[in-house]
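From the shared-data thread, chain only:
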Amino acid sequence: LSPRYQGSFWRALRACFPPHWHGPMLLICGSAYMALLDGDGQPLNLHLGLASLCQLLILALGLHKPSAVETSEMSERSKQNVAHGLAWSYYVGYLKIVLPRVKKSLEEFSRANPNMLACREIWKLHILVPLSCDIYDDLEKADSNIQYLADLPETTLTRAGTKKRVYKHSLYAIRDEDKLWHCAVEYATPLQTLYAMSQDECAAFSREDRLEQAKLFCRTLEEILRGSKECTGTYRLIVYKEPGEAETHFLSREILWHLWQQRHEEYAVYEGNPPHSPSVSVSSTELNLQISVSDLPQPLRSDC
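Structure, as tokens:
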């Protein structure tokens, strides 16, 4: 109830029993109650006739169709969610290719630029996952404390008929008061698909659908990457929920917290204080996503 419907019993009731069911359900229940109230004095054929009438009424009004909750459960069980397909496509078509090569690219860049990437703990690809699915093509426009630095060495592969397809990542400088952190950062591009679908009438994809699928995308992608040995230690998912009021440097602070966390997570005693607490936290080393229950959905089934 809490993770799926934010603790609202009324929202859960509406999902299980849509509003157009309320009248017919009351009619059927009332008829059944009146028939059973004096059941001993009624003939058997009347009971059978009433039962048949109730069944016909259910079929005529479409009450036999699955509710939103049942539909969602069937989609999750059969892996038919949009988010599930996007997560797997993102992994197979991109992350599985680039992540095993990320540290090599960072090492080559570090040799050419000594002392710029001194902190090896953050030699990873930092993937930004905004739950709003609102993505900036230019990170510098998203936050002035994020400055483009350079491109990492390219990876060239022949893929799906394209000769010498180029894969590359950009290195950014993140300003933390008077200190600069350097790291590879980019958005999870499949979120652009979810955002575009919510803006296209043909997709019939609401804002609520987009949020739910974005959350499910995060959980599915984390599960996939956690099970990939070749991607271990090469990525950091930065899942965040943008604040209601615009904050000039919200994104840079979110990234800085994750950089600080990686820099210190190997030590038992932390020195200093973290930049700030993240809006949503994800631990790639835990069995389950460590995300606030109000931010990411849990599966409907108890066996997941």
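The chain has a mean pLDDT of 78.
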